[in-house]
C-alpha cells in the first residue's frame, strides 16, 4: 500500500464517524429556533439604531447645511442665525483635556497590571477598584468632583472641574480595554525580546505596545466617545452660555450635550437646533472612529501585517 493510499484510508476512517447529513428532525427544529433568535436579536439591535440615526439626520440636517451653524454661536437675537460653533469648541476642548489626563493614567496602569503585577494581590485589588469605577454613574462622579473641588478645596465651577469628572468615567473604559489588548500579546514575543538582551521597559515600548496598538486606540476612542456625550457632569459643574468662550477656567461653558439639555429645560426639546446638535455630536464621534481606524491601519502596515 502506497503512502497516498494510507493517507486516503486514514481520512476515510476519520470522517466515517461524522454525520455530514443536513440536520433533520429535532436537530433541524433546534437549528431553526437558534437562527430565528439570532435574527430577532440582530433586528432588535439594528432597528433602534437606524431609527435614532434617521431621526437625527432627518430633523437635524436642516441646521447643518447652513454656514451659520458652523460659524456662529447662539448669542444672536435672530434664531435663524443661531449656530453651534461655541458648543463644538467646548465639546472638543473638554474632550482634549479629558483625554490628556485619562489616557496616560489608563495606559500606565494597564501596563503595570499586565507586565509588572500580573498574579499579585495588588493587581487584583486594582482590578476590583476599576470594576467598581466602571459602574459609577456619571452624576455620582460629578457630585464627587463638586464636593472635592468646589466645596472642600474652594475652587469654582469650570471646564477643568467638569473634565475631572469625565476622567473618572473615561479611565476605567480605556484601562480595561488596554489591559485586555496587552494580555492578547503572546508571551513568546516578550521571551524572544528578553532572549536578545532587551530590557523589560524597552520590550514593552518596542514589542508589546506596537503589537496591541490597534486595540488600544479603539479603546481610547470608545472612552472618548462616551464622555463626549455625557451631560450630568456638565450640568453640575458648568453653567450654560450662548457665546464663544474657550477659556477652560470659565464657569460658563457650552457643549453639544448641554445645548440639548438646556433646550429641554426650557420646553423646546424638539427643535431643529436640538436635533442639529445631536447630529453634530454623532458626526464628531464618527469622525473620531474613522481617524482611529486610519491610524490603526497605518501602524499595522508599518508592522507588516
TrEMBL record:
Transmembrane segments annotated in the record for this chain: 32-54, 84-113, 125-151, 157-175, 204-225, 274-295
PROSITE patterns in the cross-refs: ABC_TM1
Region (Disordered): 1-26
UniProt key word Lyase: no
Main location: membrane
InterPro entries, per the entry: MetI-like (IPR000515), MetI-like_sf (IPR035906), Phosphate_PstA (IPR005672), Phosphate_transprt_permease (IPR051408)
Membrane-protein topology: Multi-pass membrane protein
GO molecular function: phosphate transmembrane transporter activity
Gene Ontology process terms (BP): phosphate ion transmembrane transport
Pfam families the record matches: BPD_transp_1 (PF00528)
Family annotation (Gene3D superfamilies): MetI-like (1.10.3720.10)
Domain ABC transmembrane type-1 residues, every copy: 88-292
NCBIfam families: 3a0107s02c
Role noted for this protein: Part of the binding-protein-dependent transport system for phosphate; probably responsible for the translocation of the substrate across the membrane.
Protein family per UniProt: Belongs to the binding-protein-dependent transport system permease family. CysTW subfamily.
Protein name (Swiss-Prot/TrEMBL): Phosphate transport system permease protein PstA
Classification lineage: Bacteria, Bacillati, Actinomycetota, Actinomycetes, Propionibacteriales
Amino acid at each position: 500500500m502506497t503512502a497516498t493510499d494510507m493517507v486516503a484510508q486514514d481520512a476515510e476512517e476519520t470522517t466515517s464517524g461524522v454525520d455530514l447529513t443536513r440536520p433533520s428532525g429535532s436537530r433541524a427544529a433546534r437549528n431553526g429556533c437558534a437562527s430565528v433568535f439570532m435574527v430577532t436579536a440582530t433586528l432588535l439591535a439594528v432597528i433602534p439604531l437606524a431609527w435614532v440615526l434617521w431621526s437625527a439626520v432627518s430633523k437635524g440636517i436642516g441646521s447643518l447645511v447652513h454656514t451659520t451653524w458652523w460659524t456662529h454661536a447662539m448669542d444672536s437675537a435672530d434664531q435663524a442665525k443661531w449656530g453651534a460653533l461655541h458648543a463644538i469648541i467646548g465639546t472638543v476642548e473638554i474632550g482634549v483635556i479629558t483625554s490628556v489626563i485619562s489616557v496616560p493614567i489608563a495606559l500606565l496602569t494597564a501596563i503595570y497590571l499586565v507586565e509588572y503585577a500580573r498574579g499579585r494581590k495588588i493587581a487584583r485589588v486594582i482590578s476590583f477598584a476599576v470594576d467598581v469605577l466602571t459602574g459609577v454613574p456619571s452624576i455620582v462622579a460629578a457630585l464627587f468632583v463638586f464636593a472635592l473641588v468646589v466645596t472642600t478645596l474652594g475652587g469654582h465651577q469650570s471646564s477643568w472641574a467638569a473634565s475631572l469628572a469625565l476622567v473618572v468615567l473615561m479611565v476605567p473604559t480605556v484601562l480595561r480595554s488596554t489591559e485586555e489588548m496587552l494580555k492578547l500579546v503572546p508571551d513568546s514575543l516578550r521571551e524572544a525580546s528578553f532572549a536578545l538582551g532587551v530590557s523589560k521597559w524597552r520590550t514593552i515600548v518596542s514589542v508589546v505596545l506596537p503589537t496591541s496598538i490597534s486595540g488600544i486606540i479603539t479603546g481610547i476612542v470608545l472612552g472618548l466617545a462616551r464622555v463626549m456625550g455625557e451631560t450630568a457632569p456638565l450640568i453640575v459643574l458648568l453653567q450654560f452660555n450662548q457665546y464663544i468662550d474657550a477659556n477652560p477656567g470659565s464657569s460658563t461653558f457650552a457643549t453639544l450635550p448641554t445645548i440639548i439639555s438646556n433646550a429641554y429645560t426650557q420646553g423646546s426639546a424638539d427643535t431643529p437646533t436640538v436635533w442639529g446638535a445631536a447630529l453634530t455630536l454623532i458626526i464628531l464621534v464618527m469622525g473620531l472612529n474613522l481617524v482611529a481606524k486610519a491610524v490603526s491601519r497605518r501602524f499595522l502596515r508599518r508592522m507588516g501585517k
